[in-house]
Amino acid sequence: MFKVISETLVWWPVLFSGVAEDGVVVENKIELRFRILDEDAIDDFARSTNIILQGTQEAASAESAAEDRPAPSILMQRGLSPIVRDWRLVAGANGEPLPFNEGNFQSLLRVPNVFAAILSAYSACRAGRAEVRSGN
Predict the structure, then answer these.
(1) How many CA atoms lie within 13 A of 109 on its CB side?
(2) Cα–Cα distance list, 83 to 1, 54, 57, 76, 91 (Å)
């Protein structure tokens, strides 16, 4: 029997490419606990993330960023806050697990490829693409 509940929370893998210190390309994996937005909320979320993507691209192409403009990682964190509730498999430089909080999340979002990977993983999760989940 299907249950209608007010909030659905799901752990889902997020994969993103990176480069190790020795120059080897690696695939990084973390897990995020996503809040699945309902049909009423998903359009607002999509609009806000598109604005963030446009804003970070404009800021990157500008010769000098405006002093009053928030850093891209802050904009990304604000945009993702409706859907990201927790994480696993995220550690600091010392290898110790990092607690999920606003500052640590912004630090993660400064890592190249992470923001786009989170959006892609959320899209797969919300669509229920089992092949994405089972392949990780």
Answers:
(1) 25
(2) 26, 20, 22, 12, 21
pTM of this prediction?
0.82
CB of 29 closer than 8 Å to CB of 136: yes
Torsion sign over Cα 119, 44, 35, 92: positive
Task: To the nearest 10°, report the CA torsion of 77, 118, 115, 68.
Answer: -20
pLDDT in tens, 59-95: 555 544 556 677 888 888 888 999 999 999 999 999 9
Task: Identify the bridge partners of residue 79 per DSSP, sorted by sequence position.
Answer: none
Report the alpha-carbon distance of residue 111 to residue 5 in Å, rounded. 34
CA distance 107 to 119: 17
- Cα separation, 13 vs 133, whole angstroms: 7
